[in-house]
Amino acid sequence: MRISVNQNIKLGSNVYHVQTEYYRVSKKIVTNIFKGGMIIKRLEKEIDTEENIEEQTRNFHEIIVKRIRSIYKN
pLDDT tens digits, residue range 49-63? Predict the structure, then answer.
């Protein structure tokens, strides 16, 4: 099962692509942040259980998106 959440965020003149995926083998949720097609940041979250993994993946993605937007506001 592959779970992936993708979103483009425009902040000023910059566009960031945020991609969050769950990797079953490593039991990690991984978010890559791209700018201009290059990864500029990778964030990982280890999980204890695969219960509600789709929801966990979406929640982690939203936390990262909110963090990016809050940094831009400051």
Answer: 999 999 999 999 999
> What does 5-69 look like in DSSP terms, one character per residue?
EEEEEEETTEEEEEEEEEETTTTEEEEEEEETTEEEEEEEEE-S--TTHHHHHHHHHHHHHHHHH
Strand, coil or helix: what is 72? helix
CB 40 within 8 A of CB 31: no
Beta-sheet pairing, 38-46 with 28-35? antiparallel
Predicted TM-score (pTM) of this structure: 0.90
Q: Which amino acid is at 5?
A: V
> How far, in Å, CA of 42 to CA of 18, rounded?
10
